[in-house]
Amino acid sequence: MMLTVDSLHAGYGRIPILAGVSFAVAEGEFVGILGHNGMGKTTLLKTLIGHLPATGGSIGFEGRDITRLPPALRARAGIGYVPQGREIFPNLSVRDNLRMGALLGRGPEAATIAQVLESFPRLVRLLDRPGGALSGGEQQLLALARCLCGDPRLILLDEPTEGIQPSIIEEIIATLHALRAKRNLTLVLVEQNLNFIAALSQRVLIIQKGQITQEVAPEAVGDPALIAEFVGMAA
Predict the structure, then answer these.
(1) The whole model's pTM is what?
(2) I want to staple 193 with a disulfide (CB 3.0 to 4.6 A). Which of 48, 85, 155, 161 is the partner?
(3) Domain definitions of the chain by residue range
(4) 3-229 adopts what CATH topology?
């Protein structure tokens, strides 16, 4: 397994959020995580990348225990993170945003960026534009491209469709499928857009009160009973 999570606990100060999360992700697999707001989805990703410390349990990546590893070393080990809200550098150009991502890459900067742009042709004409001047959808594409400049083998992707126009949502789906085929990319996706998570995920994990409570097939995400169980999620 590429990623193994065993009885993971984490929280904010004295407030526990994750209460024993366990799951595993194989190389090249796309796994979705679905749940109400406040159930621990974003906390899980922040703990996996190291922005929050684990208070119990373990995280393994490619057979190595990374539970206590700092975020920079997890990134260098091959884990990419695209946070909710994208967090691009708004005052830097698109090109310079990509250059920041390439600092984690293993190859020459120019070649790394050129290779990534092959998967994000929409960004080519925007290279000299400030990141903050892009639309929400373009910023999300930039955040993904910047992450890929670090040559990750696993990407943790948090709520990528938030505030994005439908045409770019379809573009993101197509781009991620193409990257899985081209790079054997592995993806852990947190999302509330049911159509998006079903279109990308090979299986979907349900998180409730800080625990993975069940696993469902992507086609089951369209089940009205499941939607009713997770009221408030966008179909």
Answers:
(1) 0.93
(2) 161
(3) 3-229
(4) Rossmann fold (3.40.50)
